[in-house]
Design brief:
Elements (H helix, E strand, L loop, with lengths): L1 H31 L2 E12 L3 E12 L2 H21 L7 E13 L8 E15 L2 H14 L3 E8 L4 H26 L3 E13 L4 E2 L19 E13 L1
Helix pairs in contact: 2-3
């Protein structure tokens, strides 16, 4: 009992000291929470210097092997023509290959019979010379391709454009922070956190082309101007 009586006053003293210090700790945490978080959006534009297109070959046949054989011959002729026109091997990539049956639904929709096969082969091609891109597409179609998919105008080296978009995003976020703190009647403090957000590239555009182009025709293309966008998040201290 003597030991317990000696310990009890000491415990009470410790608890009273902790309680006395608690308001100061709360105040410090409150000061640390005085921040402002802002998001910034940035954009940069330039004329693209490369086109990415989808070129395909579709063939019909009585058998799957026959349809694929004819398809392979037409696609090989297309690829050979692209290489002849200066497109590098690294800029030609197979993106789709399939062989599917064709059905006759007129006589029996529930259980149609197979009347043939369709083979499809698609390649994605990067064209680095936009001045000749229209003529290249035209000659590729004449050599064996019979379908064109989407087209996108992109940048061979987009890093400088993305850097410009991010700089613009930081400026936008900083301007928002200055505006908000000024309106609130407080002072903007030091920058505490910088968080990089998304970086968005231009979206592909659909391209329609006639397959019966004349030998001296050239697909008209207009690259126009493309933009990339970026976002950042900044966290400032409020003084």
């Amino acid at each position: 009992m003597g030991i317990q009586k000696a310990i009890f006053p000491a415990v009470i003293a410790v608890l009273m000291t902790a309680c006395a210090a608690a308001p100061e700790a709360v105040a410090q945490n409150s000061d640390a929470a005085r921040t402002i978080t802002v998001n910034g959006e940035g954009r940069a534009s330039a004329v693209p210097d490369m086109a990415v297109i989808s070129i395909g070959v579709k063939t019909d046949g009585d058998t799957a092997a026959g349809a694929l054989r004819d398809n392979s011959a037409a696609m090989k002729a297309t690829i050979d023509k692209l290489k002849e026109l200066g497109v590098a091997n690294k800029d030609i990539q197979t993106s789709g290959l399939s062989v599917n049956p064709r059905y006759d639904y007129e006589k029996n929709r529930a259980n149609p019979r197979i009347i043939g096969y369709v083979a499809s082969n698609t390649i994605t091609v990067r064209l680095r010379n936009l001045d000749d891109a229209g003529a290249v597409i035209d000659q590729a179609v004449q050599s064996g391709a019979n379908s064109l998919g989407g087209i996108s105008f992109v940048f061979a080296d987009p890093k400088p454009l993305y850097a410009a978009a991010r700089i613009d995003a930081v400026k936008d976020a900083k301007a928002k922070a200055e505006l908000l703190t000024d309106a609130a009647g407080v002072d903007l403090g030091r920058l505490m956190i910088i968080q990089d957000g998304y970086a968005q590239a231009p979206s592909p555009r659909p391209m329609l082309a006639r397959m019966e182009m004349q030998a001296d025709a050239s697909v008209p293309l207009s690259a126009g101007e493309s933009s990339v966008s970026a976002s950042v998040t900044l966290v400032y201290e409020i003084e």
